[in-house]
Write a structure and sequence with these properties.
Layout (H helix, E strand, L loop, with lengths): L4 H4 L6 H12 L2 H13 L3 H29 L3 H11 L7 H33 L8 H13 L1 H20 L2 H28 L4 H9 L8 H14 L6 H7 L7 H29 L9 H11 L5 H34 L4 H21 L14 H28 L2 H8 L3 H26 L4
Helix pairs in contact: 2-9, 2-12, 2-13, 2-15, 3-11, 3-13, 3-15, 4-5, 4-10, 4-11, 4-12, 4-13, 4-17, 4-19, 5-6, 6-8, 6-15, 6-16, 6-17, 7-14, 8-9, 8-15, 8-16, 9-13, 9-15, 10-13, 11-19, 12-15, 13-14, 14-15, 15-16, 17-19
Amino acid sequence: MTDKTPSIHGQWSSRFAFILAATGSAVGLGNIWKFPYITGENGGGAFVLVYLICVLLIGIPIMIAEIMLGRRGQKNPIDTMQTLASQSKADPRWQYLGWMGIIAGFLILAYYSVIAGWSMAYVTKGFFGSFSGADATAIKSLFDGLMASPIQQIFWHSAFMVITMQVVMRGVQGGLEKTVRFLMPALFVILFLLIAYAMSSGAYQQGIHFLFNPDFSKINSSAVLTAMGHAFFTLSLGMGAIMVYGSYLPKDVSIAKTTFIIAGADTLVALLAGIAIFPLVFANNLEASAGPGLIFQTLPLAFGHMTGGWLFGFLFFILLFFAALTSSISLIEPAVAWLIENKNIDRKQACIWSGSACWALGVGVVLSFNAWSGFKLFGKNLFELLDYLTANLMLPLGGLGLAVFAGWVLSQKEAQQELALPEQGFQAWQLLIKYVAPGAVFLVFLHVVGVL
C-alpha cells in the first residue's frame, strides 16, 4: 500500500452507515421488479422457502467472504485481489477476479440505468394520472410508446446517470453515506404505505396465502436453480460492489453479524414488495405469473382502477427509483475507486470518465429497443446480451472465484483473524464457503449455460 492510499481511500463513519449502504447496494430492481414476478412464475410460497434457504446457505457465506476480502485488502477490487494473492503466495492472475467484478458492475449499470430511467418516466406518468381509468390496451400502448422513443429513453437514462454520478462524486461519507441515510428509510416508509394500501384491496389474504403457503408440487429443478441464482444475484455479489464497500469498513465491526443484518434487510424488502404487489394483482384479476411486464404493464393497470391509485402508483415508482439509485451508486463505485487509486486523478475526474463511458454504452442499450432492434449478436440485442453476459456468466463465475479464493487460497488463520468468529461458527462458515456455496454456484452456472 502506498503512502497516499489512506488519504484517498474513504471509510464509513459507522457500522450503521455500512449496513445502510450495503443493504442499499443489495436492494434494487431485483427485489421490487424481479422477485415478485419470478415468485409468481414459480408458484409462490414453496419458491419463497427455497429462496430463503439459498440466501442462508449460499448468499450469506459468499457475502461474508467478499466483505472480508475487501476489508483485508483495503483497496479497490483489482488491487485487493492482487495484494491478497501476493500475500498468500498464489497466482497473480487472481487479480482478474477483481477486473471481472469491476467490468460486470460497469456493464450492469449501462442497462440498469435505462430500466431505472423507465421508473423515472413512470413516476411522472403516475403523478399526472396517465394510469387512471386506462384499460390493458392503453397501458400497453403507454409502455410501447416509451420503448419506441429513443429521445424519451435517452433523456431519462441521462437524468438517472447524472443523479448517480453526482452522488458518487461527493465521496464515501459526503455522497454515498448521506444518500443512503435518506433513501433507505424512505424506501421502507413507502413500502409500508403500499402494504397498507394493499390491505384495503380486498385480496390481501389471497396475496399472503400465495406468497407464504408452500405448494411443493410447483417446485422443480428449474425453480430451485432460479431461486439459487436470484439469492446470489440479489445480494450484489461478484460485481466488486460489496468488496469495495467492505474496504471502507472499520476494523472493529463484526463482518458476520453485519452480513446477517444486510441479507435479512434485503430479503425483507423482497418479501414486503411481494406483500404489497400480489394483493393488487389478485384484486384486479390479473396474472401473478405475468413475468417481467408485471411492474410496468400489469401494476399500472391495477393502479388505474383503484381508489387513490394515482397516488400509490406514483409512490410505487418513486420506490422503484430509490431502490435503483441505491444499487447504481455501488455498481460504479469500484471503477471510480480503481481510477482514483491507480491513475492519480481526483474523484470528480474519475466519476466523469467512468460515468460518461457508462452513459454512452447505455445509449446503445436504449437504441437496441428501437433504432437498432434489428441488430443482434448471438441472437440477442445489446440489452439482452449485456444482461446474459453479466447475470448468467460473469456474476456466477465471480461468486465461484470468491468462494474458492476465500475457502482454499487465503490463509484460514488470516480469515479467522478478520472474521473473529467463535470456533464453531468459523468451522460452519468454512464448510459452506469451501463446499456448499461453490458447488451450488457451479450448478447455477451449468444451468444458465444450458448444461443442466
